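#onboarding

Welcome to the new folks! Below is a worked example of what a typical request in this channel looks like: someone posts a single protein sequence, and someone else replies with the predicted structure as tokens. Don't worry about understanding the tokens yet, we'll cover that in week two.

Example request:
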Amino acid sequence: MPSELEKMVAGETYDPNDPELVAARERASELTREYNRTRREETERRAALLDELFGSAGDTEVFAPIYCDYGFNVHAGDEFFASFDCVFLDVCAIEFGEGCMLGPGVHVYTATHPLDAQERASGLESGIPVTVGDQVWIGGRSVLTPGVTVGDRAVIGAGSVVVDDVPSDVVVAGNPATVVKELD
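Example response:
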């Protein structure tokens, strides 16, 4: 029988109160607290903490503060940049390609809950991965919801709420985000 962690990462319904998951969230909380206390000049220490927190990270620059549920489900390619106050609810994989830029306060959610009220009251959760292609720019205070895929070189306007997949080479904006321009 799969563990609650295995079910969570696979996107199946899981119990977030499982002791292994509670311990993993506490570990991520401690690592993010430690990261958020570092100074920008402490590049080696910051890189080491991100290597420990994230599932994988290339050459990255992440401004503190950041927040994660687990951290190990966040994967960032080379030349990844995240400005202040980003949030990653990573019960499933969050994959960023190379050259991605996140403005301040970007939130990426993989966690979701049952729509049925009685099921939701049970406390069980699930998740759907989020994938972001290469050279994507996500404007400040944007939200990516569970299950979306953002294509290469896309631009997401500040304050957008992305609820559907975003094609490559477009600008999307709004709530819900819609294509407002095609890029050459």
